[in-house]
Every structure is written in C-alpha cells, then in structure tokens.
Amino acid sequence: MGAQQRPKVLLLGEIEHAHKQWDALGDFAELVEPEAKNREDFIEDALSGEFDGAVVAYRTFASVDITGRFDKELISVLPASLKFICHNGAGYDQVDIQPCTERGIRVSNVPTAVDDATADCNMFLILGALRGFNIGLFNLRQGDWRGVPPPPCGHDPEGKILSILGMGGIGRNLKKKAEAFGMKIQYHNRHKLSDELAGDAKYVSFDELLATSDVISLNLPLNKQTRHIISTAEFGKMKDGVVIVNTARGAVMDEDALVRALDSGKVWSCGLDVYEEEPKIHPGLLSNPHVMLVPHMGTWTVEVSHRYFSVFRLDTQTAMEVCSISNVRSALETKKLRTIVPEQARMQ
C-alpha cells in the first residue's frame, strides 16, 4: 500500500513576511501555488481538477486581482475537498460567507492582530480632522507657514461626543484611546454590548447616533447591509459641522455624498484611511483641504504585541500572516479554525 497522500493547501496571493511559518506547513501538507493570473484562468483550472485534494485555501487581500471576489460563482467551482478558507485580514468583504456556508466551507479572518494599530491610526485621523491640521501641513510644505489667510481654528477633542459605529475589537480599542483625550463615547451595534465590554460607553440607536455626534468613527465590516450605510439621507440627519473618520472599508460610506456634504459645510472635515475604489481616490476628496488622507496604512506598523497567538514584537503585517497561517495549521490538524468568522460560529 502506498503512502497516504498529503492534503493540499492553496496559496492565493503571496507570503511576504512569515516565510518560516508557511514553509513549516510543508512538513505535512503539499503547498500549491496556482499559476492562473486572472479569474477566467483560475476557474478553468479549478474545473479541470487541478486543485482537487486541496483542503484549505490561504488568501490575501491582494489576491482578489487574480481570482476576483469569492462569490457564489467562484465558490461553486472549488473542489469538493476544500473545507476551509483562511483570509489574511480583519475585513473579509471579498468573501461571500453565505455560499461558503451552503457548501460547508468554513472561513477565518484575523480579528485582533490589527486592533491596536488601526485604532492608533483612527485616533490620529480624529485629532487631525478635529484640529484641521491638514491645511497647515499643506501650507507649510509650500513655504507659506500657516497660509494667508491662516486656516480656521480647530476644535479640541475634550468634551466632544465621539460615536463609534461598530464597536468590535477596533472600536473598543479606539474607545479607550479617545477617553484619554476626554471624549464622551457612544456607540451603535447590531446588538448592545455587555456592560463589561461597553464600559461607560452609551448605547444609542442609529438615528440618535447620527443626530447627536460631534465626531463619527466608522468601524464596522463591509457587507450587503452596511454598503453605503452613510449616504445622503444620513448626512442630512447629522449636526452641521460634524467630523467623520473611516478606517473600516471605503464602501461603507458613499464618497459622492461625502464630497457633497463637505462642499456644503455639513461635514466640517474628515479623515480617511480607506476608499471605495482604492487605490483610486475621489477627486473631490483630493482637492478638499479639509480632508486628511492616509493610503490604507492603518496596519502599517513596525511593532505590535499580539497576545492571543503569543506573537510578540512583530510588525502588524507579519502578525497577521502568522495568525492566518495558524488557522491553516489548525484546520489541517484539528479540522477547526481558531478565528472563524462570526456568521459561522455555530459551524465549529
């Protein structure tokens, strides 16, 4: 009798940092890198049986350029052997969970490794947008000091009502940081948090959040229900001069509507780390001096401490890869994922 065939693991995208951890999977699994460079070829290879025997697929955010979204069409052509998709990222809007569930495919993400770094970026954008620093920074680099006339005075964070839309790990991390600046925290979730998780933060309805906020921070996942959750109607319910910050996903906010709200003065300023069609940026955002723009660098840090996976002093990008690879290993060894997405919690 021949040796038992090793399970296959598909690599969709690149391992950029955690090469040692990835290579170690080769001790008990066959690591497969598809040759397809576009969705059409990937689907053709899948239908030809090239990926048969694959149990786990490890995918990166950038791999969408090859496979396209993991939607019902793509999931339908995956081999019957494939039971796990390990996504390297906190947001997993590129993967449609419902058709995965229907096929019995479990999906993991990286829910905690990015919390601290993203919340730091979030707080930076809140402070910069409140204080209106962007105009001064631009004028200074043009050799014009503060500019003539000087920019309008900014606003202190102390005493301002910060509303967090989506109080998950990043939102709760942001809450602690914002409280250190004397901000008053309220939030809206699909479900009210326990007192232990919410602390002193006040739970409010979505409409109350829109009507009472001085600053709104978007920290919710992107899905069919949250796409453009902030658009023209929602801006109309906000205070005049509100500040908005988005470090979640660009498409949770309608950028056309945001530009109009900025132009009208309804939104005084905003800070963005994510965009609807990144790396393409809406020209109305680029041209507005009241908009602070960061090129999706919320997780772009040198050091992070990630206790859950006992990974210390790794840059955030490496910690994310290690976390995702640990899900691959767990799937192969225990047939369970360490960080299954919430929608599939009952599948563990």
Summarize the structure in words:
With 348 residues, this protein is of the alpha/beta class. 34% of the residues lie in helices and 17% in strands. The strands form three sheets. It has a seven-stranded parallel beta sheet, with helices on both faces. Strand 4, helix 5 and strand 5 form a beta-alpha-beta unit. It is elongated and about 75 Å long. The model is unreliable at 304-313 (pLDDT under 50).
Shape: elongated
What profile does the largest beta sheet have?
Answer: 7 strands, parallel
Element-level helix/strand string: EHEHEHHEHEHHEHEHEHEHEHEHEEEH
Strand % is: 15-25%
N/C terminus separation: 34 Å
Number of strands: 14
Identify low-pLDDT runs: 304-313
Largest beta sheet: strand ordering? 8-7-6-9-10-11-12
Helical fraction: 25-40%
Instruction: Kindly name the structural category.
Output: alpha/beta
Estimated radius of gyration? 22 Å
